[in-house]
Amino acid sequence: MNPSSVLPTSRWNLRGQTALVTGASKGIGAAIAAELLGLGATVVAVARTAADLEQQVAEWQQQGLPAHALAADVSTPAGRTQLLAEIAQRWPQVHLLINNVGTNIRKPTVAYSDEEYRHLLATNLDSAWELSRGVQPLLVAAGGGSIVNISSVAGLTHVRTGAIYGMTKAALVQLTRNLAVEWAGLNIRVNCVAPWYIRTPLAETVLQNEDFRRSVISRTPLGRVGEPEEVAAAVAFLCLPAAAYITGQTLAVDGGFTVNGFS
């Protein structure tokens, strides 16, 4: 008998679960939302730009998928407060939170302005910190759930993408560890995914430089840039009941970049 034929299918789907995904109008966030929808979850997609978000969500809805759009700038206290209030009113139970929203400004360390520093911290770190705390009661109301933070290999090792970006992504890794232990008794699992260069609008701005692209690929054992769907698959796995004994972990989706020594 094929062993897979006796595995309970409930371990490999998200039917009946509600997922909140930030930065969901494009790139990795949109791929994550689509992956979770395909596994049966109801997805509340969040992004700052309403027009882009509503267009993407409309495409999912036309396929009969249970997707909902909430426009909010989660880098700001007002945006987070608005979002959390609407979520609590419409979905009093949330099972999955994907802290995906992020941005970058690539500069030498001494060239950053105070405003740029605050903007990167607010977008990449404050959003995950406040949304995790704000959604926690809704996860508890659901009987537990899963948080996945989207970090970066820049939070694991040096990458010439900017010190502030690396700081925020490293902080997400540690936040993941702390919350995983603190909230384990509430049946809330917290994990992290750390991508390398992925074919997204944010990355394409630098990957268009052929010399830079060749440099990236030369450090990547699998010899290519990653796809958003490959990150989404890792996130989805960490959300599944099949991953119920995994918490506090950071999974690099990097084509082998972080283990590439001198060969």
TrEMBL record:
Q: Which domain of life is it from?
A: Bacteria
InterPro entries named among the record's database cross-references: NAD(P)-bd_dom_sf (IPR036291), Sc_DH/Rdtase_CS (IPR020904), SDR_fam (IPR002347), TR (IPR045000)
Q: Which UniProt keywords apply?
A: Oxidoreductase
* Thylakoid among keywords: no
Any one GO molecular function term:
oxidoreductase activity
Output the PROSITE patterns linked to this UniProt entry. ADH_SHORT
The record's comment on protein family reads: Belongs to the short-chain dehydrogenases/reductases (SDR) family.
Q: What is this protein called?
A: SDR family oxidoreductase
Q: Which organism is it from?
A: Hymenobacter rubripertinctus
